[in-house]
Design a protein that fits this description.
The complex is a heterodimer of chains A (369) and B (366). By secondary structure, chain A is α+β, with helices and mostly antiparallel strands. Helices cover 56% and strands 12% of the residues of chain A. In chain A, the strands form three sheets. In chain A, strands 1-6-5-4 form a four-stranded antiparallel sheet. In chain A, strands 2-3 form a two-stranded antiparallel sheet. In chain A, 27% of the residues are buried. About 2% of the residues of chain A have low confidence. With 366 residues, chain B is of the alpha+beta class. Chain B has two domains: 230 residues, P-loop containing nucleotide triphosphate hydrolases (Rossmann fold, 3-Layer(aba) Sandwich); 118 residues, Nucleic acid-binding proteins (OB fold (Dihydrolipoamide Acetyltransferase, E2P)), CATH 2.40.50. A six-stranded mixed sheet of chain B has the order 6-7-8-3-9-10, sandwiched between helices. A five-stranded antiparallel sheet of chain B has the order 13-12-11-14-20. A five-stranded antiparallel sheet of chain B has the order 15-19-16-17-18, with no helix packed on it. The model of chain B has no long low-confidence stretch (mean pLDDT 89). Classes of the chains: A alpha+beta (369), B alpha+beta (366). Chains A and B meet through helix 9 and helix 10 of A and strand 6, helix 2 and helix 4 of B.
């Protein structure tokens, strides 16, 4: 006996499955980001003592009373404090009273204190902009002069690094796209000997990890005296980005309708005119999507910048400054969240600015009906 | 305005021969249609003329120039593509002006020509629209307009109507015809649709397997096909073929098929004397087969037995799909015919209009 299939029900199940897994994926990505955002507004103390979810209402043991250890108790034996009994170890963990409170020994045997705690609903909502202020304006250090007076010294701030990152990212995005678009057009639409071999080589370069190129390139840069310059980073990112860019754009450009190009050819257009007047405007979706890739990659890059820029503070990019801000022993890691958010602002703006170019159907109306 | 000549043109793609030794001339102001089944090389032949493919051997002339090595833009041609090939990001005006701008035509001249072409095609109010805002027919008009503004010596059309729906196709067919009269320019038009070819062409070139089969006026192609392929390709429904032998008896010639034997009228018999006792193919068009009840007077009527397989009512006529033994054939008969599926009937062949082909060479015997 077979159960009759119910298409409506089947569709509903698949809808739930699809929407459910999509929702799960989105939540998986969004929740840590929200946590980061919330954390960036919390005070240093809060960040270091509780998780970001403590901003939501939750039950927590809250101190209601604190007093010195009564003199008549012997910490080495069984004690009776505030109506409950227990050993020192039990008091350290907290001993519950019949009315729902908890008596806790805080500190060591000799210098400790007794706290009476209640289980209460609380929200940790001491929000502050201090983190952002320190990240953007730089942390202030108090230095003592020899004469005993103090002066305040501003540490490095993010602004310079932000501009440096822009200076690196924009050319390192535009240059490879331009070169790759030319190359992709050539591979797609121009006939020349060795075309296939060359293209296979370009695609093959996709599998080469950039890490193996770092040292040789660094050696060359040292000889060319390019180390620590923006040009070094532009060239490096261009080189590392080109294979993927060429491959992606080739796929798009070779898919453009042949008739359009041939029509332009008969109309009297040269390859260069076809490229600038037709290919570029028609490839905007592909160019934009690769631009987003490349921009995010360069903006978030730490390794390449660290290797080729090293420790020159005036050309340091954002990621390097972010790593430095935490301090060599991680003592300021509460600033990391705010710093991360500052560095995310621009990529977010770029994404939302370019995402409308992802619209399909830019070619609508050119061919067929 | 210019003539076009193909001289022994051959185009190979690797080992495949797409265009095989094609030679023909197109007179100035002529409307030549290249027609043939898909993949027969007709589009390749056109692309060779446009300069989009390189000629393997032979020469193509436009006017008195050999254009083999001349770039497409310098050949003084304009081409309309099957897919319209409009530039999607440009407005209709810019689409039409694109080629002129590249040629550094003065702005006022561009404007005059674009508006002139738009007026001819009735698309003036569309000039500021983008291609995606147009219907299929409008896009096709823009594509034609883009060709007109160039004022080329030769217009090339590559199946321009095959993406349109049937009604629009008929309408555009008439318009392209009118355009040809108005522009007085050489048109070369590729199609796989023999109705388009018949209705538009001043001459038709039938191509099969890269080989030019016959080039002639539509009526001549229909009446005097030179071989089996042309006979079968031109006309719808297609001509009926019966493998047969020619037999002579008492000085009279007979077509001796598996299931019928019919005499050839003495007045028509002259060309076939050499083919007695040879294998031939007997061809007769559907409209020359009649229901005995509605046979026109004064024809050489010969009766054969047949079985009705399918009846298609068209309103003004009836298509009878029938069998004579193993051979299937179609008759286009009077709508009053009362034959039904499965009927064993006699049909009348009009022996004034028939074709006989050599079974071996497939050439028509005349």
């Amino acid at each position: 006996m077979s159960t009759p299939k119910n298409p409506k029900r089947k569709k509903m199940v698949s809808d739930i499955l699809i929407n459910g897994s999509l929702f799960l994926l989105v939540a998986l990505w969004i929740i840590p980001t929200i946590g980061l955002l919330v954390s960036s507004f919390r005070t240093r103390f809060d960040i270091q003592t509780s998780g970001w979810w403590a901003v939501f209402p939750h039950r927590e043991w809250v101190k209601v009373k604190e007093f010195a250890i009564p003199e008549n108790v012997d910490p080495n034996g069984v004690m009776e404090i505030d109506g409950v009994t227990g050993t020192f170890q039990e008091f350290r963990d907290g001993v519950s009273t019949p009315d729902g409170r908890k008596v806790t020994w805080v500190g060591n045997k000799r210098l400790g204190k007794i706290q009476i705690q209640e289980h209460r609903w609380v929200m940790r909502t001491d929000f502050t902009l201090d983190n952002y202020q320190q990240v953007l304006a730089g942390k202030s250090f108090e230095l003592k002069n020899p004469d005993g007076s103090t002066r305040i010294v501003q540490g490095d701030n993010f602004v310079g690094a932000f501009l440096n990152s822009l200076t690196v990212s924009i050319p390192a995005t535009v240059i490879p796209i331009l070169i790759a678009a030319f190359a992709a057009y050539g591979f797609a639409w121009m006939r020349f000997p060795g075309r296939r071999i060359l293209f296979i080589m370009v695609v093959a370069l996709l599998v080469v990890p950039l890490q193996i190129a770092l040292v040789p390139i660094l050696q060359d840069y040292v000889k060319l005296d390019l180390n620590g310059t923006f040009l070094a980073l532009w060239l490096a990112h261009t080189g590392f980005g080109l294979p993927l860019a060429t491959y992606l754009l080739f796929n798009y450009i070779s898919g453009l309708p042949r008739d359009i190009l041939e029509s332009a050819f008969i109309d009297g257009a040269s390859h260069f005119t076809i490229f600038t007047k037709l290919i570029l405007p028609l490839s905007v979706p592909a160019l934009a999507s690769f631009a987003i890739f490349q921009f995010l990659w360069v903006w978030n890059d730490y390794l390449v910048a660290l290797v080729f820029i090293g420790s020159k503070p005036d050309v340091q990019v954002l990621t390097m400054r972010l790593a430095e801000m935490v301090g060599s022993r991680g003592n300021d890691w509460h600033l990391l969240t705010a710093g991360a958010f500052v560095s995310m602002v621009l990529p977010l703006a770029v994404f939302f600015g370019l995402q409308r170019y992802f619209v399909r159907g830019l070619l609508a109306g050119s061919v067929k009906g | 305005m210019s003539s076009v000549a193909y001289e022994n043109v051959i185009k190979k793609f690797g080992e495949t021969v797409a265009v095989n030794n094609m030679t023909f001339h197109v007179a100035d102001k002529e409307f030549l249609v290249l027609v043939g089944p898909s993949g027969c090389g007709k589009t390749t032949a056109l692309r060779l003329l446009a300069g989009l493919e390189e000629i393997t051997s032979g020469t193509i002339h436009i006017g008195d120039r050999v254009v083999n090595d001349i770039a497409p833009k310098d050949r003084d041609i304009a081409m309309v593509f099957q897919s319209y090939a409009l530039y999607p990001h440009l407005s209709v005006y810019e689409n039409m002006a694109f080629g002129l701008k590249l040629r550094k035509t003065p702005k006022s001249e561009i404007e005059r020509r674009v508006h002139n072409a738009a007026e001819i095609l009735g698309i003036e109010e569309l000039l500021n629209r983008k291609p995606r805002q147009l219907s299929g027919g409008q896009r096709q008009r823009v594509a034609v307009g883009r060709a007109i503004v160039r004022e080329p010596k030769v217009f090339l059309f590559d199946e321009p109507l095959s993406n349109l729906d049937a009604k629009l196709r008929v309408q555009m067919r008439a318009e392209i015809n009118k355009l040809h009269k108005r522009l007085q320019t050489t048109f070369i038009y590729v199609t796989h649709d023999q109705v388009e070819a018949m209705t538009m062409a001043s001459r038709i070139a039938v191509i099969n397997k890269g080989i030019l089969q016959q080039i002639d006026t539509p009526q001549n192609l229909y009446d005097y096909p030179e071989n089996l392929f042309v006979a079968g390709f031109i006309g719808s429904p297609a001509m009926n073929f019966f493998p047969a032998k020619l037999r002579q008896e008492d000085g009279k010639l007979y077509v001796d098929s598996d299931n019928f034997t019919i005499p050839i009228p003495a007045s028509h018999a002259a060309p076939y004397q050499d083919y007695v006792n040879k294998n031939i193919v007997f061809g007769i068009r559907p409209e020359n087969i009649h229901d005995p009840a509605f046979t026109p007077p004064n024809i050489h009527a010969e009766r054969i037995a047949a079985k009705v397989d399918v009846v298609e009512l068209m309103g003004n006529e009836i298509f009878l799909y029938m069998f004579s033994g193993e051979n299937s054939f179609v008759a286009r008969v009077d709508p009053r015919s009362s034959f039904r599926i499965g009927d064993q009937v006699e049909m009348v062949f009009d022996m004034d209009t028939f074709h006989i082909f050599d079974a071996e060479t497939e050439k028509a015997i005349r």
